[in-house]
Structures are given as structure tokens and as C-alpha cells.
Amino acid sequence: MDAQSLRTQKEAIVATGLTKWFGEGDTKMTAVNNVNFVAHFGEILFIVGPSGSGKTTLLSIISGILRPNAGTVTVDGANIWEFDKDRLADFRLTKVGFVFQDYHLFPRLTTAENIAIPLILRQRNWNESIAEARKYVDIVGLTGRSEILPVKLSGGEQQRVAIARAIIGAPEILILDEPTASLDGDTGKMIISFIKEKILNQNRCIVIVTHDARINEYADRIIHMEDGRITGLDKGTE
Ligand SMILES: Nc1ncnc2c1ncn2[C@@H]1O[C@H](COP(=O)(O)OP(=O)(O)OP(=O)(O)O)[C@@H](O)[C@H]1O
């Protein structure tokens, strides 16, 4: 399947007029300033920009963590910032998967236990959750490593555990914040190409914040941010 063929016409995320500021008066700083974009199912969208340009703030808003001062976010047609508290919590748990730069694995839990956490949080039975997690151990290419603690895994392997944990609940939106920053160049590329080949599908939209220009070739589109605003939109080079 070629690199472009997964992208659908169906809108996964529609951000309109998003604005978020911190502080008041002299200390007021607008971190995200009237941002508009659309991301489609089947697409990998990169958000790039210098430190402090508002990327993490924007991710937090579209994933239902940080309420904007103005603007709307619709995910799969629903306006998430109109949800009540319970529905928003459910949205964060079921619709969005998050992968962080430093993996955020629990050091005393095994690979399978780390991956099972989202299911256990959803009140699924422990044994069933671990059995399901073992399937994801295989999906991310870590067969045989279910019972190992994170400290025994390489950085690339830990990132695969984090990806498995983020997708075990089948989220439609997968968000990765600097996923390659702690990895060497080759491992970083392997992880992103793995995400593109195995984790992206037509019912999922992937948003990646990155400073790592070496992985730009894997983007379907690239949004450039500066001072809280979108300053450009590129197609990926693939
Ligand atoms: N909770 C907060 N309180 C006050 N200011 C904040 C807060 N969060 C972010 N900011 C400010 O908003 C601006 C945008 O920050 P943000 O973390 O979104 O940028 P970024 O592009 O993700 O940066 P980096 O690449 O360094 O992570 C920065 O000037 C930051 O200091």
C-alpha cells in the first residue's frame, strides 16, 4: 500500500479559532493564537516549530486536557469542549492515545502490565487485560518480552511499549509528543516508519509534534507554528 493511500476525506479533528492564553495583564502570554486546521482519518500530521511556539499547548487542547479561551475542537464530528466532565474524561480515555518523549512507563511494571493499564483503568478484569496486552506485545514486535521490566529494554523498545499502551484501547486519535527525541537517528526513523506501516489505518488520525527534521519524510502534511500561530502548511515529501 503506498504512503498516501490511507488518507480519507473524513475529518478526524477540526480546530477552529483556537486561542489559549496564560496569565493576565502585563504577564499575559498567548500560547495559541487563532489556530485553524483539519486533520483527516488515515493521515499523519506533523506539527513543527521552535521551542515555545505553542505546540504542546495545542496538543493539550485537541486532546481534551486543556480548555481553550476561544475556539472549538471537533473530533469525529463532536465538539469536545461542549462535553460535560464525565464525557470529556471518557473521551480522553477512549478516543485519544498519547505517547510521550520519555515513554512514561511504570518502572516496576512489566511490559505487558504497562500496556494493560488503559484496560485496567476501564475496569477490565486483570487477567483478560494482561492477555490482551500480550497480543499488543507481538503487534509492536516485542514477542517474548512481555515479562521484562522497562529498564531491561532499549529506548526504541520502550517507545514501542508506550505505543502499544497508547493503542490498546483502539483510539481514533493518536498523539505523539517528540517521539524520537530520546532515540538515535536510525531508531527514530524505524519507530516512525513502523507507526506509518502498522499503527496508522483509515479509522485513525496520528498527530506528531517533532523537532526532528530527519523524520519529515513520513508526514502526510506538516503544520509549522511560530509564536502561537500557524505560519505554513507543507505536504510531506513521501
Ligand atoms: N501552564 C502555563 N503557564 C504559563 N505559561 C505557559 C504554560 N504552558 C505553556 N506556557 C507558555 O506558552 C508558550 C507555549 O508553550 P508550549 O509548551 O506550548 O510550546 P512548545 O512549542 O510546545 O515548546 P517546546 O517545544 O519547548 O515544548 C511558552 O511561552 C510557554 O512558556
UniProtKB/TrEMBL annotation:
CDD domains cross-referenced by the UniProt entry: ABC_MJ0796_LolCDE_FtsE
PROSITE patterns per UniProt: ABC_TRANSPORTER_1, ABC_TRANSPORTER_2
GO molecular function: ATP binding; ATP hydrolysis activity; transmembrane transporter activity
GO cellular component, as recorded: plasma membrane
Alphabetical list of SUPFAM superfamilies matching this protein: P-loop containing nucleoside triphosphate hydrolases
Alphabetical keyword list: ATP-binding, Cell membrane, Membrane, Nucleotide-binding, Transport
Residue span(s) of domain ABC transporter: 13-238
Domain of life: Bacteria
SMART domains: AAA
NADP listed as a keyword: no
The protein's name: ABC transporter family protein
Origin species: Collimonas arenae
